[in-house]
């Protein structure tokens, strides 16, 4: 086994005898390796005989097929959900890898009872712990119950507050009911958020968070049971450069875009602004800019775009393989059709085995282009065989953006990295990208009418 980086060794020493701990490490800093080392330490000390890892569907096989073989140093045995049985390990440490969506189901509950009988002393890990950030969700409540039963608990994520500091509550309650000083989420929210009632034009009102407060206090509590690590503080990685390649809208795109702008102005003028319809309107514009539009009957239609030709030019200029992120399904279909066998597509809905097969083929050099959606493929995977990444289209989601960019710029990358955004600078895409790069909370803008008007001003977009 290779030696630890200094931050990994230091945090291992800090956390190795704790009953619960949080690894809030920026993507690419090696938190999975450290989690495996901590698990094996507790096993060797006789505290546990099994480890249950709860994560996204896409990361289950990443743990079992890549991370565990690379970093384990003890005899082990594992099962992957949805295997029909929980087996007793003949020797060594037992791992059970579970898709977080399973927690809502009755079959999981039945199998978890069997797991508890066989392995009453177990360590529980939630990888990408923001998957349980909603306190009212059924899977969150079941995760809390699992945390209460586990002898040792770990949470891991590179982005613990994708929307707001309130996202921390559900994650930390898995570690301990009073980890942040409150057993009730509403009390926690009142302590750390300023809330006012916002009136809508239709006479309705809703509670709106206008600011956050007592954050030094929250940070101090986190510091007692967690570690925060940034890449630029602990790793000597090659540089990463980001650029924008302008791609003007086609005439047909421009006609549709102008129509959507008028619809957005109408909604703003009527004061019908809420988070749901703002996100919907912005995503319609982002879809249109990428070459597709959603009809009133729900069907998607491709419209002419200049992006495929520009993408092809960029691929021709690139040495080695390229990762292309698309936020919308029809973009991936169009790219796959255009590039044929040169493109490997990683759509959502694949089985775990199918997903791993495509990733393995790409890592072995097959295909010039891997086309994936950051919502379904942006977590956990390592793609350091490539140093070139292109955002063909994007959603208004900072977590997806940050996770996607971290796939190539992480431990194991030896080349300078280039991240390219394809967009028309005379549309709202430019300002969306600027906000995403600035790592600002999009929720701060959602209900700001002036912000929405500014999004639609082309002159400022081009100069921003």
What does the model show?
The protein has 464 residues and is α/β, with parallel strands linked by helices. It folds into two domains: 6-233, Tandem AAA-ATPase domain (Rossmann fold, 3-Layer(aba) Sandwich); 240-463, P-loop containing nucleotide triphosphate hydrolases (Rossmann fold, 3-Layer(aba) Sandwich). Helix content is 42%, strand content 19%. It has 19 helices and 17 strands. The strands form four sheets. The chain has a seven-stranded parallel β-sheet, with helices on both faces. A six-stranded parallel β-sheet has the order 10-17-16-13-15-14, sandwiched between helices. Strands 7-8 form a two-stranded antiparallel sheet. Helix 5 (138-149) runs parallel beside helix 6 and helix 10 packs antiparallel against helix 11 (275-290). The termini are far apart. Mean pLDDT is 86; it is low at 440-449 and 459-464.
């Amino acid at each position: 086994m290779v030696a630890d980086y200094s931050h990994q060794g230091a945090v291992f020493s800090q956390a190795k005898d704790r009953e619960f701990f949080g690894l809030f490490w920026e993507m690419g800093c090696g938190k999975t390796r450290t989690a495996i080392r901590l698990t094996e330490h507790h096993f060797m000390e006789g505290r546990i005989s099994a480890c249950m890892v709860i994560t996204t569907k896409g990361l289950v096989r990443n743990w079992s097929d890549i991370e565990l073989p690379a970093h384990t140093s003890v005899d082990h045995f594992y099962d992957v959900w949805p295997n029909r049985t929980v087996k007793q390990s003949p020797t060594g440490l037992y791992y059970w890898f579970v898709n977080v969506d399973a927690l809502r189901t009755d079959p999981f509950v039945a199998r978890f009872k069997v797991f508890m009988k066989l392995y009453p002393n177990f360590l529980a890990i939630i990888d990408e712990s923001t998957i349980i950030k909603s306190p009212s969700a059924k899977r969150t409540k079941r995760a809390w119950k699992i945390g209460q039963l586990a002898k040792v608990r770990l949470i891991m994520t590179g982005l613990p507050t994708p929307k707001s500091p309130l996202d921390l509550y559900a994650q930390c309650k898995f570690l301990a009911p009073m980890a942040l000083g409150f057993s009730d989420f509403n009390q926690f929210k009142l302590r750390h958020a300023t809330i006012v009632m916002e009136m809508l034009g239709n006479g309705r009102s809703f509670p709106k968070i206008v600011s956050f407060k007592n954050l030094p206090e929250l940070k101090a509590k986190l510091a007692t049971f967690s570690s925060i690590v940034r890449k630029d503080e602990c790793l000597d990685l090659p540089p990463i450069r980001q650029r924008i390649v302008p791609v003007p809208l086609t005439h047909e795109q421009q006609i549709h875009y102008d129509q959507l702008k008028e619809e957005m102005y109408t909604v703003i003028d009527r004061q019908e602004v809420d988070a749901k319809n703002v996100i919907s309107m912005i995503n319609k514009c982002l879809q249109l800019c990428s070459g597709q539009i959603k009809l009133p009957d729900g069907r998607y239609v491709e419209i002419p775009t200049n992006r495929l030709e520009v993408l092809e030019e960029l691929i021709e200029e690139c040495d080695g393989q390229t990762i292309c992120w698309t936020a919308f399904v029809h973009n991936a279909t169009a790219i796959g059709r255009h590039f044929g066998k040169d493109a490997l597509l990683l759509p959502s809905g694949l089985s775990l085995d199918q997903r791993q097969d495509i990733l393995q083929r790409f890592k072995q050099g097959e295909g010039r282009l891997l086309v994936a959606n950051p919502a379904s493929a942006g977590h956990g995977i390592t793609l350091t065989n490539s140093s070139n990444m292109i955002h063909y289209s994007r959603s208004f989601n900072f977590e997806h953006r940050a996770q996607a960019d971290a796939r190539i710029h992480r431990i194991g990358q030896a080349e300078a990295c280039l991240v390219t955004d394809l967009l028309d600078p005379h549309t709202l895409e430019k300002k969306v990208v600027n906000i995403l790069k600035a790592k600002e909370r999009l929720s701060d803008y959602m209900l700001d009418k002036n912000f929405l008007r500014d999004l639609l001003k082309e002159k400022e977009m081009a100069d921003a």
